[in-house]
Amino acid sequence: MNQPVPLAELLEAVGAWDIKPIPQQQEHFSFNFKGQRNVWSLSARWLDTGKLPQIYLDDRHCDKHRPHVAWYRVVCYNDGEGLFFTDEDLESVLLKSLQMAIKVLDDGSSGNLTEFFSELEGYMDGIIKIKPSTNYQCYFPLEETPHKLWAYCESKTSHKYKWYSERNQCWGVSEKDWKRTTEKKSPAHGVRGYYLPLRDQHIDPPLPGEYWSFNDLLKLVNSFLPELPELEKFVNKPWQRYIFSFPREKGERGAFGILVNKDGASYRVHHIPVSRFHKDYLQKRASLTIHAAIKSQRVAMIGCGSIGSMISQMLVQSGFDNLTLVDPDIYSADNLYRHVLPKYFIGGGKAAGLKMFLESAFLDLSLKASSDNGAKWATPENIQQHDLIILATGNHAFERQLLKTFIRNSSLGQKIMSVWNEPLGLGGHVVLHQTGQHGCLNCLYFEGGSQLIHPQVSFITPNQKVSKNLTGCGGSFSPFSANDSRQTALLATRTIETALTSKEKSFYEFWRGDKKQAIHNEINRSPVYDSGFPEKDLWWDEKTNTGCPICRN
Ligand SMILES: [Zn+2]
Ligand SMILES: [Zn+2]
Fold this sequence. Notes:
It comes from Syntrophotalea acetylenivorans. It holds the Pfam family ThiF. The protein is α/β, with parallel strands linked by helices. The chain is built from 18 helices and 23 strands.
């Protein structure tokens, strides 16, 4: 892979001419190449044949902006994704790359800059910095109105500025550090700047290789004077900091940063890269499209053990912000290898620990923790205050009891869900009841007009001793692993997401695992497990119509 690429020879072989090494730059050659419509002056470097060659546009073409040509003139012709190339035939890889680059340039010659402006954030970020380590971190949302900003900066030597308009947006700083820095009156703390959202102002980004003059900047800043008259004084300050945003597609905004410093009688403009720390933006980066239904859901998690803790974490990562965590148990060392909580939570309450853990891991949540047991917690008021109640206690007698209370006290749109694992990796189950619809946990225990002791969907035959006992009579636990819980939790989270958009039914879902461990432990599987339950959907449809006494009231 790392043999030197004979780039000059390869260029000649693919039909380039006027090939010259660029002085003081290793393995960088300028050349001419003919496209469909134009002759292009380009240069190329190719140090790593595991990647495509880098192709640059020559200065003489950089008298105007072109789509997919970065500030440092590299042509963005392919992101390498979905492309197969082999380093055994470098000549054809080079030819193909040149053809792709030329196509980008030919297409971009039309003068239509829509694509250029849609990539403006990347273009501005690519400006080679005079002050290379400085970075503006946006903790505030990029809204449509201009306003004053404050920056937190840890020390004089750190050039990472955390910009906010209100203190609580700036989640990167502990209360202690915040106080310490403020008390010291560190000069880096309390830096002021302005957020200026461009609307239809004409933006004239610096041409490749160039920088803005102070006058270029003033044109933009002055257009905000009607809204922010104080800018008139601010532009005379020896240090000025700005974050501009500009409209992008789908109502989103991009941003770039500017630092101005007075150098003798003149002002120098520095382009500063911007990174984004606001929750909405970060959630979008995780491909989350959070609809209003998710944001407004108030979820209660009864049972914060293995499955419950995993579902809670998955829900938060799916955009659910409002959770009540209920569990009377203490987090013990026995739980460690199948729970989301780290080891230093051992000895504390599970519910309080999970709340603290999620708050420290994610942004801007509204969490409550209760150490009540589920029965005590489930008052009519508490039930009415939640859109979704998840029962992850592993105790179906209790969960059926709570289901009755729920059905008596809930109103349309509310949901209740039970989740549980089968032992020894055999599988897991999820049943979600929606108020006003048929189908509930009890349905799984109801057949031919009478209640059963075991759910019909059980994957093992009744009356087997599966609780393994490692510590004597007092210490029995159900044998399932973290991955069993993870799979059940994932099924539960997906089912919740589906139920939010299809309100006209209740759900029963399962996953079926491998039987090796069950065989090894001499546990007999049920016919439901052995058959793979192919008729599940049909069965559940019928089930919800033959009716149990709890959900058909
Ligand atoms: Zn591009
Ligand atoms: Zn039912």
